[in-house]
Amino acid sequence: MTQQMKIPLFPLTGVILFPSMQVPLHIFEPRYQAMINESITRDRMIGLIQPQSNIDQQSSILYSIGCLGRMVDIEAMDDGRYNIILEGIARFNIDRELDVKTAFRQAEVTLWDDTQDDEALSSVERASLEMESRRFADNLGYSVDWEAVTQLDDMALVNAIAQVAPFDSAAKQACLEAKTLSERAELIIQLMQFFGRHDDDSNRVTLQ
Questions:
Q1: Positive or negative, the Cα torsion across 25, 205, 141, 184?
Q2: Which pTM does this prediction carry?
Q3: pLDDT digits (tens, 9 = 90+) for 114-127
Q4: Cα 199 to Cα 45: distance, rounded to the nearest angstrom
Q5: Looking at residue 207, what is its pLDDT?
Q6: What angle (nearest 5°) sits at the alpha carbon of residue 201, between those of residues 195 and 203?
Q7: Residues in CB range of 135: below 8 A, 6 or more apart
């Protein structure tokens, strides 16, 4: 069953959020400070979404799919800035962006049904993802607690990699838009295998 609602939008390039995952954010621009102030008095929810251009995130055309998040931790600073922890609730499609007087953007959205808690990878898919993740981490020189990784359920593992891996914004968006866990895992494996075909300036894995 779909749900429609009006939400404030936080356009942010290169950052995605998945249901049940968390992302830390530092809020320093006045327009987004205003967004946090208003959200605190309501339901503490904002929509994290990527702009298609990082020239001006406030006026850029947005991707159509983002993730609704709830602020589960808020640190207010004396100068008006915030440190927040945003926890994913559900992915959404933008139905229409609203003409508003607020400094921040708002939209009517339809939430996805992201409650498939029983979705799981096959043993072959899981093994392939873990193997490729180890190779990928070694190439990047990352130190990873692999024992802890093996304890993660499939959904947590796939979404954690998609959220934190140094993929470019288009690759991250593709991960967000993958409808099933298996599709997302396969895409992540492909992106990690193609590591090395990256933007020289950003050193990020790219879909180009």
A1: positive
A2: 0.87
A3: 766 568 899 999 99
A4: 34
A5: 45
A6: 25
A7: 192
Q: What is the DSSP letter of 128?
A: H
Rounded CA-CA distance 62/156 in Å is: 26
User: 137 and 26 in contact (C-beta within 8 Å)?
Assistant: no
Residues in the chain: 208
Reported as half-sphere exposure (CB side, CA atoms, 13 A), residue 195 has a value of: 16
198-199 and 65-76 beta bridge pairing = unpaired
Chain position carrying tokens 């979705």: 119
**DSSP state for residue 61 in the 8-state scheme:** P
Kindly compute the dihedral angle of the four CA atoms of residues 169, 171, 172, 176, in this order, to the nearest 10 degrees: 130
Tell me the domains of the chain and their CATH numbers. Answer: 3-111 (2.30.130.40), 123-205 (no CATH)
Here the tokens at position 181 are 């866990």
Tokens of 1: 């069953």
> In which residue are the tokens 């004396």 written?
78
C-beta of residue 96 within 8 angstroms of C-beta of residue 110: no
